[in-house]
Amino acid sequence: MKLKVLTAGLVLATASQVFAEPVKLTNDKQKLSYSLGVMFAQRLKADFKYDDLDLNVMSAAMANVLKEEKTAIDEQEMIKIIQKAQRESYERAQKRMEKEAKENLAKEKAFLEKNAKADGIIKTDSGLQYKVITKGEGEKPKAESTVVVHYEGRTLDGNIFDSSYKRGEPATFGVNQVIPGWTEALQLMPQGSVWELYIPSELAYGPGGIPNKISPNSTLIFKVELKEIKQPEKVESAEKKEEPKKS
């Protein structure tokens, strides 16, 4: 741990938080101070919450450091304090994730059992469920194929976490370069199809999820439109075979 960097982050993070009222930025000095405060506060958010910190004390520490005054705690003690706080924060986060993961599995079980009985739902041996919205007439991709798709992904609570539609252009990727639920579904879809996929967590991002985006053991729902299967280009060798020389 680089204490000087971390300490600077701790103290400068208070620049944008000490005052409850909106900060008025009228000159370059104020804008720089605010920008540094935001930057370091973003780093702090990974380990600490607002309620974990005393902003007045952080402001005093900032003054000590920037004025090159003696700090109230020596460097070795600071290291121990910060490391202890980070461990405790990590342990709390792990407990929250474990609780959330357990709850999500229960929600998943209930949802998939009910959804499997709905009209038009097809279930595969892996547990993947899907519904055909538009039936395509083209070929089906293979595991090594590259496809062009439009898609929208959401969680069970309806939160949209990713959408090529919002970006305004379809995505291109290899069939075997995505989560298992996608890899399986794409190989079943004829080109031109539009399906809705219901992907169990074990075929998605599992207990790890994606921090700040997809919680542990989340069941994912995707609308997928298979627009194109890209054919691999045939590369002909540029080297020409030489004819045997006559002796």
UniProtKB/TrEMBL annotation:
Catalytic activity: [protein]-peptidylproline (omega=180) = [protein]-peptidylproline (omega=0)
A single Gene Ontology CC term: membrane
GO MF term list: peptidyl-prolyl cis-trans isomerase activity
Entry superkingdom: Bacteria
Enzyme class at the top of the EC tree: isomerase
Leader peptide range in chain numbering: 1-20
Keyword Metal-binding: no
Residue span(s) of domain PPIase FKBP-type: 144-230
EC number: 5.2.1.8
Keywords on record: Coiled coil, Isomerase, Rotamase, Signal
UniProt-listed GO biological process terms: protein folding
Pfam family, one: FKBP_C
Coiled-coil ranges per UniProt: 83-115
Family according to the record: Belongs to the FKBP-type PPIase family.
Protein name (database record): Peptidyl-prolyl cis-trans isomerase
